[in-house]
Amino acid sequence: MQQGKRARAIDAKHRNKKWLKVGFILLLFGIAVFRLWDYLWESFREIARISVWGKIGMFLASTGYMLMEGMAVSRLAKVFHTNLKWREGVGCAYYCSFVRVMTFGGGAGAAEIYYLSKKGMEPAHAFDTTLIQYLCQKLTVTILGAGSLIFLFKSIEDVIGKYKYYFVYGVTIAVVIIVAIMLVLLSRRIAELLCVGLDRIGEKKAAWKNKTDQWKEQVMLSQKGVKAMLGEKGILAEMFVWNTLKYFCWFSVPFLIYGERNMGFWYISAGLMAVATVMASVIPVPGGYGALEFMQLLLFGSVLGRARAVSMVILYRVVTTILPAFIGGGVAAFYKRRILH
């Protein structure tokens, strides 16, 4: 009886969180429409003017990202002795994109663990694979963003203007976060000190005890997973290559639609996209919705003009979220009998 009440309370809490996310995203959408109303119709006209080759390029960029993501997932699975085929890794990438949209950014990690476990991977190894892939993505995009800010600073200084110090601070925070995470995962001593701190937090309030115990368990399991990955020579460099390739598929979107064969615009726009992505990662919003769009408008407004920048933001979300989720829905339906049951 007591357990049933507790389960219902947990379900109600999850539902409330979900609706809070929906409300927050709708609020952001409403504010964006209100603030950018004068540019919306012109941005739609800009979208209509994009060439057929530009639209094909966007589709290829979206597909290329998913192919590289599938390669990274299947490669990591082999570290944990699971023979996950490349096409199955690609299916996993699309499936997670679909779940990410359905859960407003909150369920992609759980979806990947579920998918991999249904493909024969032990749940603990599926968790390790998902976490390591996430960390490799964070590490890669942080390196790309920090590198772009450093090496292209003179070229983009006029673009970021009075905000340049905020960008330096934001990228620095992202670097500190990823370094701290890596230290916890690579150093057993630091991990043990973190677990001691979590124990003290759990002792102060009974309601926190279960959560801190879960975090401790995840830290120790993650350490084992990272050590297993590093035990395979060259895997970290290989993951960096796959993640760099996939991100540059997405970062090339501004060039594909408005580059007009100007290769100088390609490396500037790709660098700006990398910086925008890192900056958005340190802004705590559900699924990154709103934060990335804000950074893109801020950076590309003076480069493309406000109307084109708005259209680029819309198309970037189509390429990175809507199209993969649409295809991912088909993947989920196709694998329904094999995976979901």
Descriptive notes:
This is Phosphatidylglycerol lysyltransferase. Belongs to the LPG synthase family. It catalyses: L-lysyl-tRNA(Lys) + a 1,2-diacyl-sn-glycero-3-phospho-(1'-sn-glycerol) = a 1,2-diacyl-sn-glycero-3-phospho-1'-(3'-O-L-lysyl)-sn-glycerol + tRNA(Lys). The chain contains 16 helices and no strands. By secondary structure, it is an all-alpha fold. It has one domain (about 45-340). Helix 3 packs antiparallel against helix 11 (about 235-250) and helix 4 (about 85-100) packs across helix 15 (about 305-335). The radius of gyration is 21 Å and the shape is globular. It starts with a helix and ends with a helix.
Write the topology of this structure.
Blueprint: H1 2-35, H2 37-49, H3 52-79, H4 86-102, H5 108-118, H6 123-151, H7 153-160, H8 164-186, H9 188-204, H10 206-230, H11 235-251, H12 253-258, H13 263-281, H14 291-304, H15 306-334, H16 336-340
Mean pLDDT: 81
Radius of gyration over C-alpha positions, nearest whole angstrom: 21 Å
Succession of helices and strands: HHHHHHHHHHHHHHHH
> Largest sheet, if any?
none
The span between the termini is: 29 Å
Q: What is the percent of helical residues?
A: over 70%
What number of domains? 1
List low-pLDDT spans.
Answer: none
What share of the residues does DSSP label as strand, in percent?
under 5%
* Class inferred from helices and paired strands: mainly alpha
Tell the overall outline. Answer: globular
Number of strands: 0
How many DSSP helices? 16
Membrane topology: Multi-pass membrane protein
Main location: membrane
InterPro entries: L-PG_synthase/AglD
Organism: Dorea acetigenes
